[in-house]
Amino acid sequence: MKYFTVLALIAAAMLFVQVPAFASGSASAGDGASPRSDYAKGKAITFSKLVCDTCAMQKADLNSESAMTLRDSLGEMEDLSAEEKELVSEYLTRRYKL
């Protein structure tokens, strides 16, 4: 009986002890930007603002040569912020191995 009481007290105490639990996955707890998210953001900006159905360049026209030209002309584009230009440059450089 004494053994059962001790076990019951230990079990009750364990209910109140907080043990850190970490979820599985590849996302980190830090708020820093990862290269993967920079690539995805750059890709989204590229295909929403620079290469789209209503844009001067169509998706079918984007290849390594046109990507290099587009990357080199980012400095002249006033409708993109400096951060967006950097993200687009990162995407084009990695995607087309410029």
Structure description:
The chain has 98 residues and is mostly helical. It has a domain at 34-98. It has helices at 2-16, 35-50, 64-72, 82-95. The model has no long low-confidence stretch (mean pLDDT 84).
What is the strand tally?
A: 0
* SS strand fraction: under 5%
Shape: rod-shaped
* N-end to C-end Cα span: 75 Å
Short description:
With 98 residues, the protein is mainly α.
Task: Summarize the helices and strands and which ones pair or pack.
Elements: H1 2-16, H2 35-50, H3 64-72, H4 82-95
Observed structural traits:
98 residues, mainly alpha
